[in-house]
Amino acid sequence: MQKNIGSVMGLYPTPLTVVGTVVDGRVNWLPIAHVGVVEHHTFLISVDKNHELSNKGIQENKTVSVSLVNQNILRAADYCGIVKGAKVDKSDVFAHHFGELKGAPIIDEAPLSMECEVLDMFEIENFNNYIVKPVNTYVQEEFLNERGRVDYEKMSPVLFEFQNANYLSTGSVVGKCWVIGKDYKENK
Ligand SMILES: Cc1cc2nc3c(=O)[nH]c(=O)nc-3n(C[C@H](O)[C@H](O)[C@H](O)COP(=O)(O)O)c2cc1C
Fold first, then answer.
1. CATH number for the domain including 83?
2. Does residue 89 fall inside a structural domain?
3. Cα of 78 from ligand 1 centre, angstroms
């Protein structure tokens, strides 16, 4: 039996990411879990307008990095979601380097990090929603399979859910996409 719990945003868990920016010459790190694929080559990051520093960096440089988080860097990521860059220098929380794009610092220890161009922005209530496109994606080699594809089961990116404010780890593969449903009608 289902129970209606009202107008609750139920689209969790979502991947926890850390958005890297450069603001006035200083690196800043912003954890973001409100992210979503828009089409195959672009995705959305939703940034509260109150994060003045991060918004400034994104809008001035039109570039950002977006990194997935695994348990190795989870505590550091959580810290960045507690303190504000406008008050505390968070630049040294993650060792980092730069790739092709200025304004997109790449976390050395991130399991996967994308340096992205910002294509567009639209405002919804108190949020700036940026549409970004990865230009380069850097993956720790241990998380690439023999076909050179990302092995998310091995990487185990951390997910976030807002209802109870918890972090979750991803589980193991439960089925092959476009295969397990093939004979659904025949063998219900
Ligand atoms: C798990 C987690 C998820 C978060 N997701 C978002 C988000 O999707 N959008 C957002 O604007 N802030 C989000 N935040 C809040 C910011 O990360 C937090 O307020 C941060 O300290 C702001 O940093 P800044 O002021 O240096 O930009 C999240 C925080 C945590 C811990």
1. 2.30.110.10
2. yes
3. 9
**What does each C-alpha distance from 48 to 17, 27, 30, 112 come to in angstroms?**
15, 18, 11, 24
How many A from CA of 81 to the centre of ligand 1? 5
What spacing in Å lies between the alpha carbon of 14 and ligand 1's midpoint? Answer: 13
Q: Which protein residue has the closest C-alpha to ligand 1 atom 13?
A: 32
Q: Is 46 helix (H, G, I), strand (E, B) or coil?
A: strand
Tens of pLDDT, residue by residue over 29-53, are 999 999 999 999 999 999 999 999 9
Classify residue 2: in a domain, yes or no. no
Domain with 71, as residue range(s), is 14-169
Q: Which two tokens stand for residue 56?
A: 């400034």
Its pTM stands at: 0.98
Label residue 82 exposed, middle or buried (CB < 10 Å: 0-12, 13-18, 19+). Answer: exposed
Asked, for residue 7, whether it belongs to a domain, the answer is: no
- 188 within some domain: no
